[in-house]
User: What shape does this take?
Amino acid sequence: MKTYSVTFLPDEKTVQAAAGKSILEAAIVAGIPINSVCGGEGVCGKCRVHVKSGKVEAEPNGFLTRREIQRGVALACHTYIHGDVVVEVPLESRISGLPQLASEDAIRFGRISERVGEGAAFAHDPLAGREYLELPEPSITDNIADQERLYRELSLRREIPSMQMGLAILQKLPELLRESGWKVTALVGYRGGTTEVVEIEPGDTSARHLGIALDVGTTTVVAHLVDLRSSETLATKAKYNSQISLGDDVISRIMYSKTAERLKQLRDLIVNDINDLITGLVMDAKAKFHDVAYIVCAGNTTMVHLLLGLNPANIRREPYVPCAATPPVIRAAEIGIKINPRGLLLALPCVSSYVGGDVVADVLVTGMTDSTDLSLLIDLGTNGELVIGNAEWLVCCSASAGPSFEGGGITCGMRATTGAIEHISLLPDGKIAEYSVVGGGKPVGICGSGLIDAIAELLRIGCIDRRGRFVRDECGHRLRESETGEREFIIFSGKATALGKDIVLTEPDISNLIHSKGSIYMAAECLMAHVDMTFDDLKHIYIAGGFGNYLDIERAVEIGLLPDVDRSRFHFVGNGSVQGAKMALLSRDALNYLQVRIAGAMTDFELSSDHKYMNEYSSCLFLPHTNIEKFPSLRGKYGKATEEGAGTSA
Ligand code: FES
Assistant: This one.
């Protein structure tokens, strides 16, 4: 097959691509991270590139104006290579920067150090242990086998009801014991109800005893290197999940993974990300890969499938059945993860196709199952997962929120990384009163929390109505018509932005966010109705997910994302996924509790079959809701708009 060279600027990276391949496919091979929110389906318009020279063929699309096409602007996913080409990837089309790391301090209740350890709820008993053993030499009166001698000594140190050893270790055991003078370190790991002797090393290597807690998110991957003896977190790292280049949400990734080759491609991307993070952690802590004995990972059901190379196809087909809810403990090396070659990896159990181990971890971290107080947990991301319950019962559901909370489907949207407007407030005339940008400096775009702020503010000053439509008289000169004929509000003019381009908000942007917030609010309301309760019955509402930390609760209520209850009931969890993984890593008690009392006790409520969800969803597509009585604290602010029938066109 004929191949052509594709050069990407400004990186000056050249790869060979077969004739007819898309520019996006060539970029993936070149390792150039291009935004592709829709996974190359041609429906997000985020993968714009500039073809500087060479022969390409572009499929028609509704995102580019004639002038842009004449200038060489193209969608990378639907532009195909038919000659040697040079392509420039502009800053706004790149996945760049590092995700914000949620601070451990964001957990304002039951920090891990208070929940695992002496006198705490869960005993300190890590899933992996290193025991230095000085074995008595065999004699004619004590001539039991080498393996049993080792087991005997081990069981004097720790309670191990059942032990096993792999053949590879057993084969080298006799020589190793004798050459080391019967002084060895046994690395043991918890594996599905038994304890495995994972590795035997000569001498005393017990001081180097590390594990990794991992949050494998759809958007970000976060890893903590943990000293299993002291429980101390030695280093933390985060990066964007490289699978983003093949789709922003779990559905687009499942759709992409339809062949074995593509499934492997997705697995390789996430495994490389994890290996990058581990390399950084090990270097920061001046440790060795060999010292890392165990990984506990938490992720949504699809991400765990993709990591383990399990086919996720049935997750999106009715009746939504995953391949495994509780995958077996595996050797990390089996999937190419670089720690101790015999180190183990455990994925926290999922509840259903759309409620994964990350949510189970959130519940563990909040401690919401410690008392009879009723709590609601909302994990916000491209998918929203909700859990209600207490010490006696738990019910969960999930709702697709769409990508807008993470900047997807928004004209100037971006993730919460350097350059993103994270908070903003407006003066009555629409000018900026205050704003903050992640990492400081001039803004590049707007992330989910900034978007919620902006919409709440536009509503407050009367610039949009409760349907999210611009009110021409109130917006003044900041409202204009775009090249594609849409009305757009200029938040920042190009002079004040990092890219020299205006940062705008269009009516479709506002509509996308309204659909996302409506989906989450409706899911919460249906879950409450399902258990025959109301929001007033809740003692606590926990907000989890990377986006959650930066959310302004008041504004989230004002747009109708969160219920209008006493604000003191809301608590931010931070990254509950990685914290829960860490608790399980450090305590077999905590893992057991998580498996039996949380994942095992949680009932899944399928929203797609709930009539209320289907019938009443459209009532949530207003700011904050068609029925202002559901938001009593806002009645004075927006009550007049209701009387004027702002919500009548549902
Ligand atoms: S339009 Fe190209 S990735 Fe979405």
Remarks:
- Residues 36-38, 40-47, 75, 77 surround FE2/S2 (inorganic) cluster (CB under 6 Å).
- The first helix runs from residue 23 to 30.
- The two ends are 54 Å apart (CA to CA).
